[in-house]
């Protein structure tokens, strides 16, 4: 395996990392438009790092409007091999408390207004999403978070909702009781799907800020407590990221096929492929399209 290059997609509170060398903001253009923001690149203890503010600096993109395809393409252009998605979430489980980190290994995608694939008419492909995250990368992140004193839950189902409104009480109860979801957020789909199509190792770190509306005390949550939790989560996330260089080596032992997801995925015959679309796919799928 090549030397790993880690990207972190998250909020503005997580990329102020002590010890980041040669830090610079880079503008990257893609065939899918501009990414959410310029990308901060640098090196931390020998590990190449890239930070992409998902909503842009100043939080200008709603979850629906985030340019997910451009974000993943831009990271792949830079040579990124591993992506940690760091985001806030609500909890459906009493034991997944505010301040805890959850490393989900499954998603339910309830988003409806987002482009969810790089492929389309003229070049059709189907990748496996049975196991949509890299559990090796997720395990390394969990270990790094625990070293910060965070309670970490490995495994679980993340419900991705469209937003920007939060769920109703009826929806929250359904997701928790009937669907068996563990946490809820608005950003990890189609991000995980696109990362798989781009053959990137992808894992989510979902930071619990509060309980979703199913919880009997939901309406009594003190906003100041939520803000306090958000601040603590950001601090712990920075510490977790700082711990990744010691853990993410050249051989992570991933056997899930993240880096070879397209090996048998492209269905369209070579002589039937749309040349313009194939050109747009060069960064994410050039390995198999030639």
UniProtKB/TrEMBL annotation:
<feature type="site" description="Important for substrate specificity">
    <location>
        <position position="167"/>
    </location>
</feature>
<feature type="binding site">
    <location>
        <position position="12"/>
    </location>
    <ligand>
        <name>phosphate</name>
    </ligand>
</feature>
<dbReference type="InterPro" id="IPR035994">
    <property type="entry name" value="Nucleoside_phosphorylase_sf"/>
</dbReference>
<feature type="site" description="Important for substrate specificity">
    <location>
        <position position="223"/>
    </location>
</feature>
<comment type="similarity">
    <text>Belongs to the PNP/MTAP phosphorylase family. MTAP subfamily.</text>
</comment>
<keyword id="KW-0808">Transferase</keyword>
<comment type="subunit">
    <text>Homohexamer. Dimer of a homotrimer.</text>
</comment>
<feature type="domain" description="Nucleoside phosphorylase">
    <location>
        <begin position="6"/>
        <end position="236"/>
    </location>
</feature>
<dbReference type="GO" id="GO:0017061">
    <property type="term" value="F:S-methyl-5-thioadenosine phosphorylase activity"/>
</dbReference>
<comment type="function">
    <text>Catalyzes the reversible phosphorylation of S-methyl-5'-thioadenosine (MTA) to adenine and 5-methylthioribose-1-phosphate. Involved in the breakdown of MTA, a major by-product of polyamine biosynthesis. Responsible for the first step in the methionine salvage pathway after MTA has been generated from S-adenosylmethionine. Has broad substrate specificity with 6-aminopurine nucleosides as preferred substrates.</text>
</comment>
<dbReference type="GO" id="GO:0005829">
    <property type="term" value="C:cytosol"/>
</dbReference>
<keyword id="KW-0660">Purine salvage</keyword>
<feature type="binding site">
    <location>
        <position position="187"/>
    </location>
    <ligand>
        <name>phosphate</name>
    </ligand>
</feature>
<dbReference type="GO" id="GO:0019509">
    <property type="term" value="P:L-methionine salvage from methylthioadenosine"/>
</dbReference>
<keyword id="KW-0328">Glycosyltransferase</keyword>
<dbReference type="InterPro" id="IPR010044">
    <property type="entry name" value="MTAP"/>
</dbReference>
<feature type="binding site">
    <location>
        <begin position="210"/>
        <end position="212"/>
    </location>
    <ligand>
        <name>substrate</name>
    </ligand>
</feature>
<feature type="binding site">
    <location>
        <begin position="54"/>
        <end position="55"/>
    </location>
    <ligand>
        <name>phosphate</name>
    </ligand>
</feature>
<dbReference type="InterPro" id="IPR000845">
    <property type="entry name" value="Nucleoside_phosphorylase_d"/>
</dbReference>
<protein>
    <recommendedName>
        <fullName>S-methyl-5'-thioadenosine phosphorylase</fullName>
        <ecNumber>2.4.2.28</ecNumber>
    </recommendedName>
</protein>
<feature type="binding site">
    <location>
        <begin position="87"/>
        <end position="88"/>
    </location>
    <ligand>
        <name>phosphate</name>
    </ligand>
</feature>
<feature type="binding site">
    <location>
        <position position="186"/>
    </location>
    <ligand>
        <name>substrate</name>
    </ligand>
</feature>
<dbReference type="GO" id="GO:0006166">
    <property type="term" value="P:purine ribonucleoside salvage"/>
</dbReference>
<comment type="pathway">
    <text>Amino-acid biosynthesis; L-methionine biosynthesis via salvage pathway; S-methyl-5-thio-alpha-D-ribose 1-phosphate from S-methyl-5'-thioadenosine (phosphorylase route): step 1/1.</text>
</comment>
<dbReference type="Pfam" id="PF01048">
    <property type="entry name" value="PNP_UDP_1"/>
</dbReference>
């Amino acid at each position: 395996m090549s030397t790993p290059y880690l990207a972190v997609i998250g909020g503005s509170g997580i990329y102020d990392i002590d010890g980041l060398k040669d830090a610079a903001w880079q503008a990257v253009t893609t065939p899918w438009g501009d990414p959410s923001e310029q990308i901060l690149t640098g090196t931390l203890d020998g590990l190449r790092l890239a930070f992409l503010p998902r909503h842009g600096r100043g939080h200008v993109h709603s979850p629906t409007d985030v340019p997910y395809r451009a974000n993943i393409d831009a990271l792949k252009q830079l040579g990124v091999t591993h992506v940690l998605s760091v985001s806030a979430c609500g909890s459906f489980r009493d034991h997944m408390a505010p301040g805890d980190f959850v490393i989900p290994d499954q998603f339910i995608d309830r988003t409806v207004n987002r482009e969810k694939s790089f492929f389309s008419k003229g070049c059709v492909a189907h990748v496996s999403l049975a196991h949509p995250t890299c559990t090796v990368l997720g395990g390394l992140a969990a270990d790094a978070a625990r070293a910060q004193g965070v309670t970490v839950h490995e495994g679980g189902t993340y419900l991705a909702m469209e937003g920007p409104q939060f769920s109703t009480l009826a929806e929250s109860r359904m997701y928790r009781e009937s669907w068996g979801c563990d946490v809820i957020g608005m950003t990890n789909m189609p991000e995980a799907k696109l990362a798989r199509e781009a053959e990137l190792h992808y894992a989510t770190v979902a930071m619990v800020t509060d309980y979703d509306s199913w919880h009997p005390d939901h309406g009594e949550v003190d906003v100041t407590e939520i803000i306090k939790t958000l601040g603590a989560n950001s601090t712990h996330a920075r510490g977790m990221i700082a711990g990744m260089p010691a853990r993410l080596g050249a051989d992570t032992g991933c056997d899930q096929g993240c880096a070879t997801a397209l090996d048998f995925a492209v269905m369209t015959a070579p002589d039937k492929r749309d040349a313009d679309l194939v050109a747009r796919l060069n960064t994410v799928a050039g390995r198999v399209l030639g």
